[in-house]
Specification:
Distance between the termini: 26 Å
CATH topology: Rossmann fold
Shape: globular
Number of helices: 3
Structural class: alpha/beta
Mean pLDDT: 91
Largest sheet: 7 strands, mixed
Number of strands: 7
Strand content: 25-35%
Helix content: 10-25%
Low-confidence stretches: 145-150
Strand order of the largest sheet: 3-2-1-4-5-7-6
Number of domains: 1
CATH superfamily: Vaccinia Virus protein VP39
Order of helices and strands: EHEHEEHEEE
CATH class: Alpha Beta
Radius of gyration: 15 Å
Length: 150
């Protein structure tokens, strides 16, 4: 996911539904700053413990919040491994809050009829899986296109 984006030292990587934090931890090891968001307090505790063990916790913000209520405007990369219906519900928020040029990467699930600019197939624990990449265009924040209708 981080290579597809690609993530570097100037990035702020948000993982919405961060789980154990492995994606943000890897991004921080590349020099980025990270933000882990999860509504489940146990996931945030696990994520923080993993980041501390990896020695990168000081470069990560941990937010126990509903991802739909989290301000994401300073992200330069957003990574997702959510359910398909959650991706669809999230599209307007991404369109409205993210700055032009922000990259969005999703593991396994697309964004419905929001066409990815690039897809890759990677080998996962359960066989081949898709990665999807979108970049927020220069007209973001204006009226969302028809593809953002629910």
């Amino acid at each position: 996911m981080l290579r597809l984006a690609p993530v570097g030292a100037n990035d702020v990587v948000y993982d919405l539904g961060c789980g154990d934090g492995r994606i943000v931890i890897a991004a921080v090891k590349l020099g980025a700053r990270g933000v882990c968001v999860d509504i489940d307090p146990e996931r945030i505790r696990e994520c923080r413990a993993n980041a501390e063990k990896a020695g990168v916790a000081q470069r990560i913000t941990f937010l126990q919040q509903d991802l739909f209520e989290t301000a994401i405007g300073d992200a330069t990369v957003v990574v997702l491994f959510l359910w398909p219906h959650v991706n669809l519900k999230l599209r307007p928020k991404l369109w409205e809050e993210l700055k032009p040029g922000t990259r969005v990467v999703s593991y396994v699930h697309d964004m419905g009829d929001w066409t990815a600019q690039e897809t890759r197939t990677v080998e996962g624990a359960r066989g081949p899986r898709k990665l999807f990449l979108w970049t927020i265009p220069g007209d973001a924040g204006k009226q969302p296109p028809a593809i953002h209708r629910n």
